[in-house]
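Ticket #4471: structure output looks truncated?

Reporter: J.K.
Steps to reproduce: submitted the chain below (65 residues) through the standard prediction queue, then opened the result file.
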Amino acid sequence: MRAKVNLLPDEIKFEVVQEYLSGGFIQKELMAKYNILGKQCINNWIRKFEGCKPIPKLLMTKNSN
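Returned output as attached by the reporter:
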């Protein structure tokens, strides 16, 4: 039986990837911060968003309202 997974929106996944790649956090810290259960999630998201440009936070907040 598969474990229950967290379904986070792509915007949050991208934010997690940006925080990790910026060097400010290690994966375990981000897993705790965002309540991510899967050990490979962040690595999978890195591959998913490879080559994407960072989205400015101002733009993200305008689009989420």
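Triage note (M.O.): checked the attachment and the full token line is present. The chain has a mean pLDDT of 80.
Status: closed, working as intended.
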